[in-house]
Amino acid sequence: MKLNKSIILALLILAVSVSGCVTLQDSQSYAAQAVNTGNEELCQELKEPYHVNLCYEMVAIDTLDLSVCDKIIDADYSDVEEAAANISLKTDCYIQLALRMNNLSICSQLAIQDDRDQCYYFTGVVEGFNEDICSLISNSQGIRDLCFKDLAVENKNSVFCDRIEFEQLKEVCLRGVE
To answer: Is 69 in contact with 89 (CB distance < 8 Å)?
Structure first.
């Protein structure tokens, strides 16, 4: 499933122009050219690192090119209003490509275990949970427990609740499959 280029472009232009760091005309020009041509090098013309990385993500999603995700250099974007609070742009890029390419193995290429866990989990959210996906997730952030809870509730099968380590979530799970 290829995301409509006009949607990608609109999101990128909105994100870039909100901060006022580059003129709307510049952001439209560079973003439009990068997305429309699939040339991620044009993203470097944007001035703010967050916008450069967001541009890379949009080009990667549009071209289904994982190597473009690897150009994203995550940093602390706490001062950027539109930055996602809990997930890095690089991880989000991998998740988007895993979903669009229907290829869960893309998640395994993330270097940090917590990022891989998020990728597996969000892929499960969209594609539907299964025991294999949940088993790939470490439980360092409780994400595997959430995966098994969602799997149990989705399938109305309390057997999956038994795989949950956190007792309170296990109780929620058992109530959810009743």
So the answer is: no
- CA 108 from chain centre, in angstroms, equals 14
Q: Measured over all CA atoms, what is the biggest interatomic distance in the chain, rounded to whole angstroms?
A: 57
User: Token digits for 6?
Assistant: 């006009």
- Structure tokens belonging to residue 151: 């799997």
Number of domains observed in the structure of the chain: 2
pTM of the model: 0.73
Same domain, 36 and 4: yes
pLDDT cut 90: percent of the chain above it:
44
Q: Point out the domain boundary residue: 77, 107, 137.
A: 107
Q: Is residue 112 part of a domain?
A: no
The angle at the Cα of 121, spanning 93 to 102, to the nearest 5 degrees, equals 60
Q: Among candidates 160, 151, 158, 107, which has minimal Cα distance to 129? A: 151
How does pLDDT run across 24-81, given as a tens digit for each residue? 455 556 777 888 888 888 888 888 888 888 889 989 999 999 999 999 987 765 555 5
Are the CB atoms for 70 and 97 separated by under 8 Å? no
Among 117, 175, 108, smallest CA distance to 147 is for 117
Whole-number Cα distances in Å, 127 to 26, 46, 114, 117, 130:
37, 34, 20, 15, 9
* Domain boundaries, position 168: 128-178
